[in-house]
Design goal:
Elements (H helix, E strand, L loop, with lengths): L1 E3 L8 H14 L13 H4 L5 H24 L2 E13 L1 E8 L13 H14 L5 E7 L3 E8 L2 H9 L12 H12 L6 E8 L10 H10 L2 E8 L5 E8 L3 E8 L4 H10 L4 E4 L2 H14 L3 E12 L1 H20 L7
Parallel strand pairs: 3-4, 3-6, 6-7, 7-10
Antiparallel strand pairs: 1-2, 2-11, 4-5, 8-9
């Protein structure tokens, strides 16, 4: 971006133009004359090159004046920038990794589908700290709150069934997530809980954990992952027949998930397939947008010294030529 800080000085260019016009057009041909009776003697005499160049000395002066005028007008080069002010959201993803998450009513199975969609959710966030809690019979922090989404995605990819003793400690998973958000100063604090069962382990029940979340202004979104049918196909490795499927009971405690969400101002969802699971995360993403304020500014750098140096350089060249090669001898 380019501008003149004092553009009114550019009016002086009119004076420079007038001086050039006066010298090259109005004064042209007003020099001394000689009378000859016959022009044959001088017709073939070439015009002196030094004389022609001497006429250009005045043009050098004019150019120097142009550069001085431009320097007075203070040319500036501007760089546009912006200051981004964000009020981020702190989010904890609490994921069930109990054995029943291997059921394949959601392809390829509940856990892998949840991991893939959660990864897409993480990649779509900006300026938010995100952490991860996993739970089965117990709960622990898989990744603390971080802005390094690459590290978070690596931890997410490492999740698998069997990391923790089996069971479904939903209350412990929520309490661990609340504990990660306890000291957060973010505008919004959110837990996204995904499970396919009901609470059957742990020292803290989900309702108590929801009360802790409400006291700390933490909002909980709950997702029940699994088909609406009574049973779901579960893979079993048979030593004689290889991999086969057996039906397992679908036992999602919707009333508990709904109560926990409502207690904290969140919302309960039910994901019956991968497409629905993705739409749920997209909806949560829209509801928990980060507030971003952008303040634009332009930083200018002074360029007048370049024009000043150019003008002085031209005057110096003109002075050297006048006093050496094109010096006038009286």
């Amino acid at each position: 971006m380019f501008r003149f800080a004092d553009p009114h000085y550019l009016i002086l260019l009119i004076v420079v133009v007038f001086l050039g016009y006066w010298h090259f057009f109005l004064q042209h041909g007003r020099g001394a004359t000689l009378r000859f009776s016959h022009l044959g003697a001088i017709r073939h005499v070439a015009k002196s090159r030094p004389v022609m160049i001497r006429r250009m000395l005045f043009l050098i002066k004019l150019l120097a004046l142009v550069f001085f005028v431009l320097a007075f007008a203070r040319p500036q080069s501007g760089i546009k920038g912006e200051e981004v002010i964000t009020e981020g959201v702190d989010i904890v993803l609490a994921m069930d990794i109990s054995g029943s998450m291997l059921a394949e009513d959601i392809k390829p199975n509940r856990l892998e589908a949840a991991k893939e969609v959660a990864a897409e959710f993480v990649k779509g966030r900006r300026n938010d700290r995100i952490g991860m809690v996993v739970f089965a019979g117990e709960a622990y922090t898989q990744c603390p709150l971080t802005l390094d989404y690459g590290v978070l995605l690596n931890f997410l990819g490492d999740i698998h069934v069997g990391m923790i003793e089996d069971g479904t400690a939903i209350g412990m998973g929520l309490a661990t997530g609340v504990n990660r958000l306890r000291s957060s100063e973010a505008k919004s604090k959110v837990i996204v809980l995904l499970t396919d069962g009901r609470n059957n382990r742990g020292q803290i029940d989900p309702t108590t954990a929801a009360q802790l979340a409400r006291a700390l202004d933490v909002k909980i979104y709950t997702i029940g992952a699994g088909t609406t049918q009574q049973t779901a196909p579960y893979p079993v490795d048979d030593p004689f027949f290889g991999k086969r499927y057996v039906p397992i009971q679908v036992d999602i405690d919707e009333s508990m998930l709904r109560k926990v969400a409502q207690m904290t101002g969140g919302k309960m969802f039910r994901a019956t397939d991968r497409k629905r699971l993705k739409s749920i995360y997209d909806e949560i993403d829209e509801m928990e947008k980060t507030e971003i304020k952008v303040k634009e500014y332009t930083r200018y750098a002074e360029l007048f010294h370049y024009f000043l140096i150019a003008g002085l350089g031209l005057l110096l060249i003109e002075a050297v030529l006048v006093n050496t090669r094109f010096r006038k001898i009286p």
